[in-house]
Amino acid sequence: MGMIIATILVLVVVGLLIGLLLVFADESFAVETDPKAVAVRECLPGNNCGACGHAGCDAMAEAIAKGEAPVNGCPVGGAAVAEQISAVMGVSADAMEKKVAFVKCAGTCGVTKLHSNYVGIESCEAVAGMPGKGIKSCQHGCLGYGSCVKACQFEAIHIEDGVAKVDRSKCVACGKCVEACPQRIIELVPDKSVYAVQCASIEKGPVVKQQCSVGCFGCMLCTRQCEHDAIHVVNNLAKIDYEKCTGCGKCAEKCPAKIIRMR
C-alpha cells in the first residue's frame, strides 16, 4: 500500500513540475501577435496564391500591419477587401484599378501559316526552346500548348484554336500566366481599357503578311488617326498608352489588319 501511495505522490510531483515548465516556456518563448495582423488576415480571401508578392495571406497580413505592404495589395480581393483592410488600419485606400490578363496574339490556326507538325511534350517552355517554335510561322505569337492554363489557379485562361483566351470575369490579375508564358505575350492591362493591339510580332510588314493575315505590320495609320497621342508604332508594332486612350475607336477603324480590337 505504501508503494502505491509513494508512486502516486511521485507522479503528482512530476506532473506539477512539467506543468510549471510548460508555463515558464510559454511565457518565455511566446511570440507576440499583432491584433491588427489578425484582423487584416480575417479580411483577406485566403487563396494563398502569392499574387501579392508574399508567401501567403498570413505573410501579407503581417506586412500590411507593419506598413510594409499597401492595404490594396491583394489583387484577388480587389477594392472590396481593400476597403475592409483600410478600415482596420485606419487609413484611406485609394481605389485600386482592376486589371486583367491580355494575350497579345490573335494568330489562330486559321489565320497563321503553319510550317510544320509537332508531336511531343505539351509545354510552351519545351516548344519555345526548339528550332521553329512549334507549328506556326510566326515566332512571336502564342504557341498554344497551355503553360498559362496550367499556371492559372482560377480557370481564367484556356486555349482556343491554338491561342490562349482570357475569361475576364474570372481573371484576378495574379500574374501567374504572365510569368508562365515563355513568349512574354501576356500582360496585365486595365480592365476598363476598350481597345488593345492583339499582336506581338516585331517583324517588318512584308514578313508579318507572309506569316499571319491578322498581324500588325507597322503601317502607322492608327497613329495618324489618334487625336490623343495614345498609340504609337514602336519596333514595328503598334502600342497603346492606356492612360491616354479614350476608347474612341478611330485607330481600330483604320487598322487594315483589324488587329486593334475592342475588348
In short:
The chain is an alpha+beta fold and 263 residues long. It has three domains: 35-89, Electron transport complex subunit B, putative Fe-S cluster (3-methyladenine DNA Glycosylase II, Chain A, domain 3); 97-192, 2-Layer Sandwich (Alpha-Beta Plaits); 193-263, Alpha-Beta Plaits (2-Layer Sandwich), CATH 3.30.70.
Question: Which secondary structure elements does this structure contain, and how are they paired or packed?
Answer:
Elements: H1 2-28, H2 35-43, H3 57-65, H4 78-89, E1 99-103, H5 124-128, H6 147-151, E2 157-160, E3 163-166, H7 176-180, E4 186-190, E5 195-197, H8 205-211, H9 221-225, E6 231-234, E7 237-240, H10 250-254, E8 260-262
Antiparallel strand pairs: 1-4, 2-3, 5-8, 6-7
Helix pairs in contact: 2-3, 2-4
Structure explained in plain terms:
This protein has 263 residues and is an alpha+beta fold. The chain folds into 3 domains: 35-89, Electron transport complex subunit B, putative Fe-S cluster (3-methyladenine DNA Glycosylase II, Chain A, domain 3), CATH 1.10.15; 97-192, Alpha-Beta Plaits; 193-263, Alpha-Beta Plaits. Helix content is 34%, strand content 12%. It is built from 10 helices and 8 strands. A two-stranded antiparallel ribbon has the order 1-4. Strands 2-3 form a two-stranded antiparallel sheet. Helix 2 (35-43) crosses helix 3. The longest helix has 27 residues, at 2-28. The radius of gyration is 28 Å and the shape is elongated. The termini are far apart.
